[in-house]
């Protein structure tokens, strides 16, 4: 399979359908050589080819993360890019493989957090996803839960309810009180009634949750 010729840019297409179709075919055939070729072209001289490649890779990662998990270092390198599309695409890929390759993703944590501070909303969404996936693992809890709480305290109000709901995945008796304090602290600052209702539901679940 010549994957580069199958990318949207190579086909003079401005939509993402060819990239999604390519990702699905690679997954269906478990084509590891094709994955390797796409990864190698993350450094292609054509910016559009690079963007198509990261799109194919995170589409694969969302469905079959094991196919791309070994390339966490390559995704980490993209976090230094000046291209925001590549940054949030790489963060999407890292989020998709965090449960499969926690040690590797954890090794990139400093870069990941730096990208959260300067990146897009999509980038931050996936940073929170990564912290939660790592935070479910006992060996990373002590480090990642406080980092997640920092994100909960500093994130925009529009994102806060979603992050609060996501954080329920890492709740245990040792951190429940800290998470409750964050929810209560930010609740009064929310302007939309819909946001307040979502946080109220999270708080209600926190009072019942233990383990």
List the helices and strands and how they pair.
Elements: H1 17-29, H2 32-40, H3 47-63, H4 72-78, H5 84-97, H6 102-106, H7 109-118, H8 121-135, H9 138-154, H10 160-166, H11 176-187, H12 193-208
Rg measurement, Å: 19 Å
Shape by Cα distribution = elongated
The helicity comes to: 55-70%
Low-confidence residue ranges: none
Q: Provide the structure class.
A: mainly alpha
Approximately what portion of the residues adopt beta-strand conformation? under 5%
Count, helices: 12
The biggest beta sheet, please?
Answer: none
- The succession of helices and strands, N to C, reads HHHHHHHHHHHH
pLDDT averaged over residues: 94
Span of the ends, CA to CA: 48 Å
In total, the number of strands is 0
Task: Explain what you see.
The longest helix has 17 residues, at 47-63. The mean pLDDT is 94. The chain starts with 16 loop residues before the first helix and ends with a helix. It is elongated, with a radius of gyration of 19 Å. The protein contains twelve helices and no strands. Helix 5 (84-97) runs parallel beside helix 8 and helix 7 packs antiparallel against helix 8 (121-135). The chain is mainly alpha-helical and 211 residues long.
